[in-house]
Amino acid sequence: MIYLDNAATTFPKPPAVLRAITDCMRYDCGNPGRGSHALALRAAEHIYICREELATLFGSAHPERVSFTANATTALNTVIKGLLREGDHVLISDMEHNAVLRPVFKLAETGRITYNVFPTHPSDPACTPKTVCAEILEHIRPNTRMLICAHASNICSAVLPLEEIGALCRRKGILFVVDAAQSAGHLAINMERMHIDALCAPGHKGLMGPQGTGFFLLGDGITADTLTEGGSGFNSLDPHMPDEPPERYEAGTLPTPAIAGLTAGIHEIQKRGLESIRAHLTACNRHLSERLLDLRGVTVYAPHHVGSVLLFNVDGVSSDALATELDRRGFCVRAGYHCAPLAHTTLQTPSGGAVRVSPSIDTTEKQIDAFADTLKGILQ
Fold this sequence. Notes:
Aspartate Aminotransferase, domain 1; 2 domains; Aspartate Aminotransferase, domain 2; 7-stranded mixed beta sheet
């Protein structure tokens, strides 16, 4: 089996991640923040180490502003619903995942907010950061309170210019929320330099951690309402959730073994280096794109964007049928709309979506050639 679905979740996980999870469960798995005994304190240490690593990785000086969630979707829901107010206007990009579109749509449907979608022109090789910012300016209203965008698309390798968008939002007094689901662990992100007010990401994708891990980082002075209430191990006599992060947003027991595994995944990323990872994924994408574009009847979407994800279709063959046949021959890819119908509409994929290929930092050129050769054989 050759696994090429790393945009959904990375596999296999590094051995160090598996060891960290197992060791935590064997030796340190008390309940963090619930008691002063040795096991609870060792569990709490695992949690705080991971906060420190994430804060450092994303350019934050405040590890206490890292809050853990079950996944990026929960992080985005917490931030979006916790920061928006009645009557606010929101901007989202035309490449958003349903983790952004659906909570925004629900708030708009119930009359709490309004929103607009701004174009990013991912299919246009001539599009620049200035072009994207000009589109944003066209859609800003007096009551625009928040702009949300995916740093990198989950269906192609288009990347939005966070530094320029963040600077624009800061000038206009607009909260800047970033979905880093497809960029964390691949691309450099600095919250301070990019003027990011809230960064949301999963731990199980580019950061190589286990499933069940996600988080958000809030900028200085940013406080959101809570999405979930319950025990925090802090000031139990008060019926309110704490005022400050991270306890404000972490009701209930945290998955300490999973978070220990996430720390090990971050260490793996640090050891390899973001530039090296980015270069490897770009090389895989470019090589695969060149191979596929040589095949008759194959369409590669936005091929000028080269990164961690490639999207393609074959004339006259449904994406589901093609992915099923590739699976039968030992290749794991994902077909359909990838929980991102807005982005598929932007790229103008046909009914049924397309096939997504997403290599990892361990994917080899030999595996890419094997995939391309197998696809060529299927077409013949």
